[in-house]
Amino acid sequence: MNNLNNNWGANVAMGVTGVMSLPTGGGASAGTWTAIRGILGELAGGLRAGLWSLPLMLNGDSAHAPAYNIPLTTSVDVPATTTDTNGEQITHFYRAMSNAEYSSTLGYLQDRNSSGEGPHVRADIGYLLSASFINKANSPYNVIVEYRMLQSSTRSFYLTPYQYVPGTGSGGTIFNVARATGLNYLKYEKGVSIGFPGNSTILFNSALITPPRIYKNIK
Prior knowledge:
By secondary structure, the chain is an alpha+beta fold. Helices cover about 35% and strands about 20% of the residues. It has two domains: about 1-55; about 55-215, no CATH class. The N and C termini lie far apart (about 45 Å).
């Protein structure tokens, strides 16, 4: 964990000192990026000091999200659904896609946007199988894609300082700070989904132990 924090601190410090410049385009105002730079400065100091024992909440209550009854701490049990022949625990994630997106990316995560949310995955397949916006006849989704990785490789996803609960304010700043620092974020909405904006998709794709595969054809 100390090495992970050290790496985060180095990346954040680069952003603050200008070695890694932050964009001013993509629809974000100069004021937004000024706020992000200020947050990065606070992150850099905290990471260098090893203070990140609680998640960063830029909107809402950092202790609890009463509407969702989810305590927002880093004590998250990373789901493991299978065990391979070597005894390694394997975590499965899932994402709904259109046929066009799957054909273009072969199922790998990709984000071509310059701001806002990134592609999301969930470990809870039940949510994707029952969500009406995914399964209705005129939805844009055609397939559910499955991803497999070692459970040990997923822990850093749940330790991200960027967390957002819908209904506690705009998540745009959280998503854009995560994007600027190359890290994922957690979104608490009927369970937990993990968003990978910008270059953070590399963290996810590089952790896969098998290529993405179609888990189910929705229609």
